[in-house]
Amino acid sequence: MRREALISTSLLVLGALYLTGRVFFSEHGMGKAYVRAVEVKSLETDPEISWTKYENATQRSYHDAVVKDPDQAVYQFSLSRTLGTWVAALFTLFILSFLYKDNPLYKIAESVVVGVSAAYWMVVAFWTTIVPNLLGKLSPDWIKSWAMPGLNTEAEFIYLVPLTMGVMLLWRLAPKGSWISRWPLAFIIGTTAGIRLIGFLHADFLGQIRNTIIPLVVSSPETGFSFWDSVKNIIIIIGVLSAIVYFFFSIEHKGFVGKTAKLGIWFLMITFGAAFGYTVMGRIALLAIRVEFLLNDWLWLIDPSHARVLM
Amino acid sequence: MYEFLKDLDKRWIFLLMFLSVTIPIYIIAKTGKSFPEVPTVLSEAVFQAVEDLDEGDPVLLSFDFDPASEGELGPMATAFVRHCAEKKVKMYFMALWPVGPQMIDDAIARVIHSDFPHLVYGMDYVNMGFKPGNEGVIKVIVTDMRELYTTDDIGTSIDDIPMMKDIENVQDFDLVINVSAGYAGTKEWVQYASTPYPDKIKIVAGCTGVQAPLLYPYIPNQLPGLLGAIKGAAEYEKLVVDKYGGDDPDPKYLEAKRRMGPQLVAHLLIILLIILANYIYFVERRRGVSV
To answer: What pTM value is reported for the model?
Structure first.
């Protein structure tokens, strides 16, 4: 056996032994999830509809409830969510293992994520788009009878147009006449471009010009001259103008124009640096939450929220 | 030193980064101590926007994020819901992301069900759920809410929800709070809600670090307040906890503050690595090695 394989196998065996010991031989175990049963009532009275929903609960609240009343059924141990915690923890480790090198465990986790995401999107699209926005508009009574009891709208046959366009869009899967799908596609591209153009024109183009028309010297009768606000405004205006000059290629970047463009590059670089800094912060936050999940929710090594007893 | 650093396996850097995040998390969780936060003007603007609301004012909370960004945005969402509950405003939840409703349920369970159980669904808060269509949804509901929202998230007719009676469209809300992880999110809310209706729709937002630099140009005219990444969340948490937390605040309202510890250590490591990388670069340039 190669040295590298020996080390990784030893680490896996040690990890498995540690987990086994912690699950079966420690006083409190680890990675267990609890739920609280909450009764949900629809606000409609005719017919009255209610059902039970299970929300995440802490081990502490479960423990307190059992101490108070051993027969209570509001707080319960949840096997499905416990399995979920374990799967999430193991998949987190599988994905992180890619940092060492590509391996089959990483591939399994990656494939499962892709597959589950695709299935999830399909189901969500059916229940949030096809059912309420298409079938619910065309045949509200039918949808009300089995899917949306609160639906109180009249049939709108204008929705036959999106239904027809949807069928046309799917026509590209047919062996003949795939060109038919180009018509609804053209409609989608046209309307999306139109909506987005207006948004950008109004909020970004015109809005940003308006935001740049600001006084260089800031003063008001109440507070008088404000030095730092004036400096801030001057920097904004110099930054905007010099960055625009950098992207203005009709004049050769020489002399004054060249120096202004160079200043524009500095402003751009500082902007990119700030953006990179924020990105780093975001990525570290993502790593921190995964580590916190492993140590807190799975291994029960820490308890920052005081969510458990017997720690 | 140079020879050691030049051929350093990148996996050592990954390990260092992992430790720089893990050790502070462990220490902070064990000791219960975290680093102090000084709120910036933008966080104070967000806090003040909620503070200016009166009891019973309608507030729209759009949770446009998913579990991938929960680490950054979850604490913000918790703090927003808690602040709104303390102010006794009416909360209307919605989502432009498919898993947004789960984030809403999570925040409701964590804050309202556990600490404000007297709040009544349909009277004090309502979850209107997810609607597909991204900016199209915003474009429609700024003028007509019922065109898209015929029921709430659990299928109750909008007409049977008491707190929906006075709501025609987004312009009827006194404040829109958006927690955003990307498209569709704060940018679209600014483009299609606050910019066309500057006198009627006021938006404050919390966003991921990646988004924050793209949203700064909208401040302050189109976006009066912004919480940028986990730092913004920690500052806002401090403001909310200082005012409403009491002497012994619940640790679940200090999540972002706790997560600033690993941020500090990891950032110091990155700065050190940048300095070392530049050292290698300049040494190689002096030696004439092509880089």
So the answer is: 0.90
Per-residue tokens: B211: 């988004």
Residue range(s) defining the domain that contains residue A241: 214-290
State which residues form the domain around B23: 2-33+258-287
> Which pLDDT score, from 0 to 100, does residue A310 have?
66
CB-CB neighbors (< 8 A) of A162 in chain B? none
CB contact under 8 A, B98 and A121: yes
A282 and A226, same domain (yes or no): yes
Structure tokens at A178: 């795939």
A261-265, B78-82, B153-157: the lowest-pLDDT one? B153-157
C-alpha dist (Å) from residue B117 to A54, A55, A151, B95, B113: 16, 14, 28, 23, 5
Chain B residues closer than 8 Å to A128 by CB: 98, 129-132
Number of domains making up chain B: 2
- Alpha-carbon distances, residue B115 vs A242, B46, B111, B127, B252 (angstroms): 52, 23, 6, 18, 11
**CB-facing half-sphere around the CA of B274: CA atoms within 13 A:** 9
- Mean pLDDT, range B6-29, rounded to an integer: 92
Query: Which of the four pLDDT bands, split at 50, 70 and 90, describes residue B1?
Result: confident
pLDDT of residue B290 exceeding 70, the answer is no
Beta bridge partners of B175: B59
